[in-house]
Specification:
Order of helices and strands: EHEHHEHHEHHEHEHEHEHEEHEEHEH
Distance between the termini: 47 Å
Shape: globular
Strand content: 15-25%
Largest sheet: 7 strands, mixed
Strand order of the largest sheet: 3-2-4-5-7-6-12
Length: 344
């Protein structure tokens, strides 16, 4: 159902040093504006429907910054919009409901992932896996791995969600690869606060056009360019992404007192894990856990060295991930065996 954000969009005008108090989906929109996004679009579907409502109600703010907005006919149209960043240094963001929406967008997404991008590209995915889901039970994780699109799954906490949304553009540009930001329904509608920054007008926009565009035919997804693109993915883009995630410490470790044990979990499941530990008497009300927790705010690609460092001195670890196949646990087993670590 459409909702008005006419009052709340005033929060999007907050500047450096101000404090935002509001809803998750509005915080993500603020993160886009703080990142200098040049164009945004999408197709409505729960749990990210309200992002398009926010953008519609914030037209005056977006026009002032020169940001182009578009309500797309479907997810494929939204994904096709991102082609603007393939040849030009434009930051772009789109949103849709997944996994069904990602299936609709798959043709355009595959071409986008193969060619790579110059400007940072962020896809805000509304993930709805679980017993309360309104769609079939599939996940975006498999698609991200298939096309080598990096997948962020931030801890459901407004400062962390905003931090990861902003870092997503930088990761995308550092590795010339699209990035997905996965948000579940509770993350979209959680209320909280964070310290804001000034909005950034994009370097190139409707207000300041690119005077000398440079079109690279090698970025068209046709042979023989496609294999060169695949080679670039493996030799340059993936190593660049791994280095960025490691250097920026996008994943988190929360230490605990029971050093021989550990939990590895997706960022989006962190609150559920801590709540379960509280019910077992293993975590305090403030979230402090007796068992160390390695939080994957980036679920693809995964860092072998981080897994090894977390598990090296532990007898056993529990991997908490959504659904099946157990991609993260499979990767953990490979990482530990390669590192010669016997942790179960």
């Amino acid at each position: 159902m459409e909702r008005s954000f006419k009052k709340e969009v005033a929060l999007l005008k907050l500047g450096a040093g101000d404090t935002f108090h509001g809803e998750g989906i509005l915080a993500v929109t603020k993160a886009l504006l703080q990142s200098g996004v040049a164009y945004v679009g999408g197709y409505q579907g729960a749990p990210v429907s309200h992002m398009m409502d926010v953008l519609k109600d914030a037209e005056d703010i977006l026009d002032e910054l020169g940001v182009h907005t578009e309500v797309c006919a479907n997810e494929a149209g939204a994904a096709a919009m991102l082609g603007a960043s393939v040849n030009y240094p434009l930051r772009g963001a789109v949103t849709w409901k997944s996994i069904v929406g990602t299936n609709v967008a798959s043709d355009a997404l595959s071409n986008l992932a193969s060619a790579g991008v110059k400007g940072g590209v962020l896809i805000v995915i509304g993930e709805d896996y679980g017993e309360g889901s309104s769609i079939l039970q599939e996940r975006t994780h498999a698609y991200a791995m298939k096309s080598q699109i990096w997948l962020m799954d931030p801890r459901p906490n407004l400062p962390k969600i905003v931090e990861m949304a902003e870092a997503a553009f930088e990761l995308s540009e550092a590795s010339n690869t699209p990035v997905m930001l996965e948000l579940r329904i509770r993350a979209c509608h959680v209320y909280g606060s964070f310290q804001t920054k000034d909005n950034r007008a994009p370097e190139f926009s409707r207000n300041r056009v690119l005077e000398e565009p440079d079109f690279d035919y090698g970025r068209i997804c046709l042979p023989p360019a496609t294999y060169a693109q695949e080679k670039h993915k493996i030799e340059h883009r993936l190593p660049a992404a791994l280095a960025f995630v490691a250097e920026r410490k996008l994943n988190e470790v929360f230490e605990g007192t029971q050093k021989s044990l550990g939990i590895i979990t997706q960022g989006g499941l962190y609150n559920v894990v801590v709540r379960a530990l509280q019910r077992l008497g293993l975590a305090a009300a403030d979230g402090t856990s007796a068992i160390p927790i390695y939080v994957l705010n980036v679920t693809y690609p995964l860092l072998q060295d981080e897994f090894a460092d977390f598990c090296r001195d532990k007898r056993s670890v529990l991997v908490v991930e959504e659904g099946q196949p157990d991609f993260i646990e499979q990767a953990a087993n490979v990482f530990l065996r390669k590192a010669g670590i016997a942790t179960e």
